[in-house]
Amino acid sequence: MKYTLGIDVGTSGTKTVLFDTNGVKITSSTIEYPLYQPKNGWAEQDPADWWNAVKGTVANVMKDSGIAKEDVAGIGISGQMHGLVMLDKDNNILRPSIIWCDQRTAEECAEIEALVGRERLIAITANPALTGFTASKIMWVKKHEPEVYAKCAHILLPKDYIRLMLTGEYATEVSDASGMQLLDVPGRCWSDEVLEKLGIDKALLGKVYESPEITGYVTEEVAGQCGLAAGTPVVGGAGDNAAAAVGMGVVADGRAFTTIGTSGVVFAHTDEITIDPAGRVHTFCCAVPGAWHVMGVTQAAGLSLRWLRDTVCTPEIAQAEGENTDPYVIMDKEAENSPIGANRLLYLPYLMGERTPHLDPDCRGCFVGLSAMHNRGDLIRSVMEGVCYSLNDCLGVLDEMGVAPADMRVCGGGGKSPLWRKMLADVFGMPTVTVTSDEGPALGVAILAMVGAGIYKSVPEACDAIVSTRTKTESDGENTARYDAFYNIYKGLYTHLKEDFGALAKL
After folding, report:
1. Which residue segment(s) compose the domain that 24 sits in?
2. By C-alpha distance, which of 292, 293, 287, 291 is closest to 212?
3. What pLDDT, on a 0 to 100 scale, did the predictor assign at position 361?
4. End-to-end C-alpha distance for the chain, whole angstroms
């Protein structure tokens, strides 16, 4: 039996999972690390923490599994996207990595759009300039830390720094590189035009591969540290959402998934590239060679319910402790006692601003229609429904672009809630489906490693063999009609409040 390793370099920690070639999890290990916020709105991490976590988790997995190191056929790496890793000519880390959620680069985004032109930038990179993307981070360092930039010899993404440490190769792959805002997304290569206009030397960037391609091999030194065999192939891997898509089998036209984690994502596969000229959703290369994905984002999905739990639901937390259960289970039961529409209470989930479809950092969360008759169950249900409406906004943009699916696979913490899955089915007007594995990105890149190792001929073939569905929740036409009445009011609220949000932000 052969095996592959899936390494997921996340924001809170790194998880390494060993799978057999049927996608069955053998064992896993997770090591956490800190996030640093030296100033308001900044977010940084130390790449050395990522590497120490990778070495530790891989060594743990190899030791705990008891398998021969020669039986590991390949390694795939997933990771948080957009983070800027800058190295000197000797591969020394020049500064902490500015990661995806850092918000310091608003001025640089405006400069990028001025230098390239907003429409031209979207045509090439498939996205408007965003603070989360890597290009604006590079421009910030050029402006504010010129002495650091002068020493920079290599620019990598988080997972690609791990690849360098494993293999000695400077490389990336198309799905993660799409989020740098330096890639020609339709052409799946670095954009000479964007790089020239931004004054960034292409020699700083790694070679671009497709996700299942072999990018290098584990070195002798690293093999000894991690319990691996020298020469084990390492494939391109994928950014976290693209990797999750493979782990859920979303690798062909008509397939999509929704994640309800801290943020929310609606992600659809497409064999033909399609770009929203308004920049409301992201179009990236996906982990299937020659294909793309379109992705809408709700900034505060599960975060909205967690905020409500922590600020309002003290009795539910106490009850859950007494019953040795999760507070969300108690909250679900209370929400079930509230009717569709939460007794005419609407919630806008804009706690962290919004990306799809509004691209507005100033908008904020609201309860609309709150009255003295509402109870905590109504508040809980309205928050869950508001997240569904926001995700439906994402799906609506995808529908305009011709990539809406026939059903929706669901994952993330919120996807574990039968009530939330039913809400999504009814609001979307389509069935929601869960899959048997909950390993997501780690399984996705392990599958990519299987393809790179020749165990499967293609990513779709591997997913058809490995990924299977577990539950299916049908939509109810009557419920959909009732939700539509509230959703139509919800859609107008942002327009009514937009100027007020802006004025409030300036106070």
Report:
1. 3-248+440-469
2. 287
3. 83
4. 64
What does the pLDDT look like over 212-231, one tens digit per residue?
999 999 999 999 999 999 99
Q: Are residues 196 and 337 both part of a single domain?
A: no
Same domain, 167 and 181: yes
Please name which of 291, 442, 198, 400 lies closest in space to residue 283, comparing C-alpha atoms: 291
Query: What's the rounded Cα separation, in Å, for the pair 135 and 239?
Result: 16
Max distance between CA atoms of the chain, in angstroms, equals 68
Instruction: Identify the CATH number of the domain in which residue 387 sits.
Output: 3.30.420.40
Within this chain, do residues 231 and 329 fall inside the same structural domain, yes or no? Answer: no
DSSP state of 205: B
How confident is the model at residue 438, as a pLDDT? 86
CA 235 → CA 55, 77, 241, 390, distances in Å?
17, 8, 17, 35
Residue 278 lies in a domain: no
Count of structural domains, the chain: 2
Question: Does some domain include residue 427?
Answer: yes
Q: How far apart are CA 148 and CA 122, in angstroms?
A: 29
If DSSP codes are grouped into helix, strand and coil, which group holds residue 370?
coil
Catalytic site residues?
240
- CA distance linking residue 149 with residue 140, whole number of Å: 10
Q: Are residues 316 and 447 in the same domain?
A: no
